[in-house]
Amino acid sequence: MGQDHPLLLLGLLGATGYVAQLWLDDYRAARRGAPPPRALPGATAAGRGAIALAALGALALLALETAGESALGLTAQQSSITALFGLYTLAAAFGEELIFRGFLVIEHRGRAALVAGIVGASLLFAGLHPFLWEWRDGALQAHFGAKAWFSTAAVFASSLWFYTVRFWRLNPSRSLLPCIAAHLAKNLGVFAVKYAQGFVHGWW
Length: 204
Fold this sequence. Notes:
The chain has 6 helices and 2 strands. The protein has 204 residues and is mainly alpha-helical. Strands 1-2 form a two-stranded antiparallel ribbon.
């Protein structure tokens, strides 16, 4: 079963939806002034300005990525996706943020530790995206072409931005909302670009 198999995607969508509901419950409790003692990370409010700037920054990175692919002649090497996979990437905007920008952080140990943790987690985040590798037909396949490295670098840059909007001064409550908004904008933008370029095929 490949990573884009419909049953796998539907299962991941269901699991992400369940965890998102738990996070929303914690968020609403925090808004009422009674946050649970073991609330999920970042289940706090954020200003609209911080959320909007986070999303705009992610779209700017996507514009640079798209322009770079065009300049390097890599556009034709885009991978094709289905509408269902595109929907899953929108859900992943929450799930991945909760894991990486929520749990995989080093706080209260100084700025150097925080920055080192951000860089390390961003390398992991980029490496887990299937550009340098692919699970297909029951086997792991490696890809080390220019497109694979370029896309991995773009994901790494996006991860740095997602961490930035979690810990910048515009987000004093360390809410995940700016991170989620940025990731959602990036993934929605990627789907729009792929659709415009003819790389979205079929519903599932």
